[in-house]
Amino acid sequence: MALEHAILVSLLEKPGSGYELARRFERSIGYFWTATHQQIYRVLKRMESDGWVDVRDVAQYGRPDKKEYSVAGPGRAALAAWLNEATEPESVRHDLAVKVRGAAFGDPAALISEVERHRQAHTDRLAHYLAGETRDFGEPPAHGPLDAERELQHVVLRGGIAYERMMIAWLDDVLATLAGFDAGR
Amino acid sequence: MALEHAILVSLLEKPGSGYELARRFERSIGYFWTATHQQIYRVLKRMESDGWVDVRDVAQYGRPDKKEYSVAGPGRAALAAWLNEATEPESVRHDLAVKVRGAAFGDPAALISEVERHRQAHTDRLAHYLAGETRDFGEPPAHGPLDAERELQHVVLRGGIAYERMMIAWLDDVLATLAGFDAGR
DNA sequence: TCCTCCTATGCACCTCGTTGCATAGCAACG
DNA sequence: CGTTGCTATGCAACGAGGTGCATAGGAGGA
């Protein structure tokens, strides 16, 4: 389980509340690790009782108070230990691939609109990534070329961009294959 | 949940026992949808009681008897319904991406061997895919160019190949980034 | 003969993840 | 003043998924 480690990384990048973490998991972090607010609150409780994070009540004006979490020593140690631990690549799960193979036993042409829907979703996400790259990494950093945090965030984003481009190209391949059945009928 | 649909597709391609399905999920199907034998047996029971599949006891010599499952009418209908249903892209989970961003708060160089391990795994899998492609799709099919089942299996395999190539290229990008910190120190 | 391995099926338990719901403060709008 | 909507936290229940273990037939080797 890497959710607790993903939370540690996010809190090291910037301390915040459960609610703020949940919103980060809808954007940057969530592009390669998803979590709902329920999971996050539950795991934060456990991490707090394990001494991995510290909590601080923060009064806010114009909105409800919040609990701001930050990483404590044992949390840092746990993250360091996990980084040195060998983990297997996460299992891939593409329901669309199941559908494509299943289309052989139904109407392949009926799948075209579904594939196009997925293609659109990946195109949108790619545009979003590219906009984020220009915004956050377009200019060389003011504090020298060796800011590890920034460089590593950028290489992860480049991974997301490569993934979306690969998916769009593959979905075009799928569409061409499906169109071939139509034409050849 | 697509496990039941993945099982339906696999049984339509070829009827078999839970044990055989489990081994298929370790190879072809398992490249884009994973499942343990426990999940498979459990779901097969449910599918049987729902009338999605038929069972046939098969006596074997030199090994224990087995139950051979095949898809029944309601199962076919359920698959067709699912194919016409809009599903969201599965959420991606790359623990390595979490590690890469986490490396900013530890020793980036310590991550190199872990990244290289993953790169090797993806290289191995790519070689396996390419061998399978040559074996299964190298020759044009004897029964005409419009065998939908074969064509669709091939396009899914091409997706796997594209994924592995993308991952290898990205891992090289990560390694170059990590090496940059070492050199610049 | 015993040990190990492969085929084949299954139970019990536990964790992870999701859904639905509840509560509560405050802002903005009609 | 009521409704809607955003911030913020949390409980309860359920289903999916994974680990460990158990059983059982037969093959093959030490």
Q: Topology, please?
A:
2 copies of one chain form a homodimer.
Chain A: H1 3-13, H2 18-24, H3 37-49, E1 53-58, E2 66-71, H4 73-83, H5 95-102, H6 112-137, H7 148-184
Antiparallel strand pairs in A: 1-2
Chain A binds a DNA duplex (30 and 30 nucleotides) through residues 1, 3, 17-20, 22, 34-39, 41-42, 45, 60-67.
Could you name the key traits of this structure?
mainly alpha, 61% helix, WH_DNA-bd_sf (chains A, B), WH-like_DNA-bd_sf (chains A, B), 6% strand, 185 residues, DNA-binding, 7 helices, Arc Repressor Mutant, subunit A, homodimer, Tscrpt_reg_PadR_N (chains A, B)
Strand order of the largest sheet of chain A: 1-2
Q: Which regions of chain A have little confidence, pLDDT < 50, spanning 5+ residues?
A: none
Oligomer type: homodimer
Number of distinct beta strands of chain A: 2
Portion of residues in helices of chain A?
55-70%
Question: Largest interface, and how many residues on either side?
Answer: A-B, 68 and 71 residues
Q: How does the overall form of chain A come out from the CA principal axes? A: elongated
Can you tell me about this structure?
Two copies of one chain form a homodimer. Chain A has two domains: 3-84, Winged helix-like DNA-binding domain superfamily/Winged helix DNA-binding domain (Arc Repressor Mutant, subunit A); 95-183, no CATH class. The radius of gyration of chain A is 21 Å and the shape is elongated. The first copy, chain A, has helices spanning 3-13, 18-24, 37-49, 73-83, 95-102, 112-137, 148-184, and strands spanning 53-58, 66-71. In chain A, α6 (112-137) runs antiparallel to α7. Chain A is mainly α and 185 residues long. Chain A is 61% helix and 6% strand. Chain A is built from seven helices and two strands. Chain A has a two-stranded antiparallel sheet. At the A-B interface, α1, α4, α5, α6 and α7 of A face α1, α4, α5, α6 and α7 of B. Chain A binds a DNA duplex (30 and 30 nucleotides) through residues 1, 3, 17-20, 22, 34-39, 41-42, 45, 60-67. Chains A, B: Residues 92-178 form the Transcription regulator PadR C-terminal domain. Chains A, B: InterPro entries: Tscrpt_reg_PadR_C (IPR018309), Tscrpt_reg_PadR_N (IPR005149), WH-like_DNA-bd_sf (IPR036388), WH_DNA-bd_sf (IPR036390). Chains A, B: It comes from Streptomyces cupreus. Chains A, B: This is PadR family transcriptional regulator.
